[in-house]
Amino acid sequence: MIVRSYGAGVFYGTFVEKEGQTVVLKDARRVYYWSGASDCNELAEAGCDNNSKLTRPCSEVMIEQVLEVHPCTEAAILNLDSIKEWKYR
Predict the structure, then answer these.
(1) Which of 17, 32, 40, 49 shows its CA 20 to 30 Å from the CA of 5?
(2) How many angstroms separate the CA atoms of 29 and 17, rounded?
């Protein structure tokens, strides 16, 4: 699932629950930067290219002020899972 929030950015992970504007994801990765997709819709449909920056997964994250929620296709899941973990240093 791709989740876009007001202040925390975009996340990719496995849906756990949604209550109001709060979504919980497990095995969640922040999508720090992406290329090869124009927006969250395209991320959820096809994924992104290898120049994109996704953090290592965290066990669970609660994302507040959610603006968009996009279920991912199998193709997007395979693609996003294959993106190498981005490290700041």
Answers:
(1) 49
(2) 16
Cα gap 68→66, rounded to integer Å: 6
**pTM attached to this predicted model:** 0.94
* Residue 21: half-sphere exposure toward Cβ, Cα within 13 Å: 9
Burial of 86 (0-12, 13-18, 19+ CB in 10 A): middle
Tokens of 1: 């699932």
Question: With 0-12 CB in 10 A as exposed, 13-18 as middle and 19+ as buried, what is 2?
Answer: buried
Distance CA 1, CA 51 (A): 20
Instruction: Please list the pLDDT of the chain residue by residue as tens digits (89 residues).
Output: 999 999 999 999 999 999 999 999 999 999 999 999 999 999 999 999 999 999 999 999 999 999 999 999 999 999 999 999 998 77
